[in-house]
User: Which sequence fits this backbone?
């Protein structure tokens, strides 16, 4: 037998891989219903955590936008002179946790109030301006991000003698952050469960394929087929299921997020805002497809390990 | 080429398929393995091809103890053997050509050699014109000829046939036997398990006779002049 040429290089690849890939693909097409079911299960299993992840990313984006608008309003005592007020503004501006300071005098405040309240006419008849001078303090990001630090800062600012009253309402931002974290935790926990589901589904599909070709495997073994030769078509089938399942999951996720984006936009318009929901990036989508392929290969290997003795 | 040394094979439950069997077969010999159903013929063939491992004793193939082969060495060893089955054992989802080419694919032959050898094997068994057919569209005799082409396509050192004519009529059996004889003349060893005495009459050769797992007779090939066993 030594006078015969063994396949090498490109020919070896075509014989051992390309032909097997074609055969594996055709094998998936010969049972379209089973293949579609498996792909659907993979797609839904991956799309659910993907969707929660996208929602988490969007919640994160919204809260970081809101962080810029978080501010502490300090209402100053009415009896301060303009020098005392200017000196206090400078003192606050030099505080370490302060990003920016905006001073709104009582006259500016009254003008703005007249404009937005719709009581411009009655206000004209007031003998005195009842509004205090207001110092709007924009804290640093790390202060906004931490509830305890922001509370401590508010207490410290209120303690100044020049301040009559202070206000810092962060609860709704924190609630939104909480929802975002819930999305993330749901994405992780559901992801783990559903990815296990992907493994079980693919393993079961491969098991059925192996069982239906048990006789063929036995014959191959009689003629000296190695484990890797026998496993190769199933591994390729697993890779294909994972790849197409991952792509389908991406498509399902895009569809749901685009639907949600439409609803979110309508809601944002009610508040005079626009918001475009962000989708998964190319890198994140590729990651999902790669994970899907890897899980399918793991599932295939688990399934094949049970049939090594055929 | 093959040597059995006090080989026994028992299965779970204590059934003794082979009991203390010793014999040897030389290179290029054609040997009948005879015995009634359940005598242990198939078990013996499985032991030679390492499908089963003996419970006791040793089996040598070309001087190598095959009972000590590791799991990863068995595929390489089996490539030296050609196997033929009573029920043909063809892959029905593959064409005749693809079935015959399978051992060459497993061994990693290049495409040109696969085509050359597969066509030669199909020509040898007279099925070159049916290479694109699927096994289930062929008659029993044709399917067995596909099985023979598959078994010899990679030029094995030994051909093991387990009741190859069991499902065939006498005329077809004679044709199949001719194929074995021609292959044997080319220098290959042939071990043919059968309970069909007609085959022996058509082509008298050495006989190993099994009964309830024991070797009860080893009759050499009859002398061509007298027709009697030497």
Assistant:
């Amino acid at each position: 037998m030594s006078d015969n040429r063994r396949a090498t290089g490109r020919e070896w690849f075509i014989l051992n891989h390309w032909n097997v890939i074609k055969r594996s693909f055709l094998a998936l097409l010969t049972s379209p219903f089973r293949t579609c079911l498996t792909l659907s299960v993979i797609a839904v299993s991956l799309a659910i955590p993907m969707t929660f992840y996208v929602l988490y990313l969007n919640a994160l984006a919204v809260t970081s936008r809101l962080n810029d608008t978080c501010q502490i309003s300090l209402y100053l005592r009415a009896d301060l002179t303009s020098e005392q007020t200017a000196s206090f503004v400078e003192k606050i501006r030099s505080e370490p946790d302060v990003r920016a300071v905006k001073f709104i005098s009582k006259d500016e405040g009254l003008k703005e109030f007249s404009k937005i309240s719709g009581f411009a006419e009655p206000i004209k008849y007031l003998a005195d301006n009842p509004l205090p001078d207001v110092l709007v303090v924009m804290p640093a990001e790390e202060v906004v991000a931490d509830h305890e630090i922001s509370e401590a800062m508010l207490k410290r600012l209120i303690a100044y003698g020049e301040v009559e009253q202070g206000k810092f309402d962060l609860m709704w931002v924190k609630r939104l952050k909480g929802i975002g974290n819930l999305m993330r935790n749901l994405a992780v926990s559901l992801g783990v469960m559903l990815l296990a589901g992907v493994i079980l589904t693919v393993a079961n599909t491969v098991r059925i394929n192996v069982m239906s070709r048990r006789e063929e495997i036995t014959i191959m073994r009689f003629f000296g087929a190695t484990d890797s030769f026998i496993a190769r078509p199933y591994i390729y089938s697993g890779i294909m299921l994972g790849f197409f399942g991952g792509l389908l999951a991406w498509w399902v996720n895009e569809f749901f997020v685009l639907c949600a984006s439409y609803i979110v936009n309508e809601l944002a318009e009610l508040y005079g805002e626009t918001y475009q929901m962000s989708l998964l990036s190319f890198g994140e989508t590729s990651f999902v497809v790669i994970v899907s392929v890897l899980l399918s290969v793991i599932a295939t290997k688990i399934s094949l390990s049970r049939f090594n003795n055929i | 080429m093959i040597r059995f040394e006090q080989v026994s094979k028992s299965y779970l439950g204590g059934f003794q398929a082979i009991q203390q069997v010793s014999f040897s077969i030389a290179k290029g010999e054609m040997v009948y393995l005879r015995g009634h159903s359940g005598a242990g013929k198939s078990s013996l063939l499985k032991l030679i091809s390492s499908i089963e491992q003996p419970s006791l004793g040793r089996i040598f193939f070309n001087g190598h103890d095959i009972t000590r082969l590791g799991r990863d060495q068995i595929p390489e060893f089996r490539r030296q053997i050609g196997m033929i089955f009573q029920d043909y054992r063809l892959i029905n989802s593959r064409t005749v050509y693809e079935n015959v080419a399978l051992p060459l694919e497993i061994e990693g032959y290049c495409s040109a050699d696969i085509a050359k050898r597969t066509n030669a094997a199909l020509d040898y068994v007279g099925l070159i014109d049916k290479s694109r057919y699927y096994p289930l569209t062929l008659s029993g005799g044709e399917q067995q000829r596909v099985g023979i082409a598959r078994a010899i396509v990679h030029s094995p050192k030994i051909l093991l046939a387990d009741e190859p004519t069991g499902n065939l009529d006498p005329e077809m059996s004679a044709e199949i036997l001719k194929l074995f004889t021609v292959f044997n003349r080319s220098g290959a060893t042939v071990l043919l398990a059968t309970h069909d005495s007609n085959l022996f009459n058509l082509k008298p050769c050495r006989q190993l006779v099994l009964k309830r797992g024991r070797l009860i007779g080893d009759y050499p090939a009859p002398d061509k002049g007298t027709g009697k066993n030497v």
Notes: Chain A has two domains: 20-65+174-304, 71-169. The radius of gyration of chain A is 33 Å. DSSP finds eleven helices and four strands in chain A.
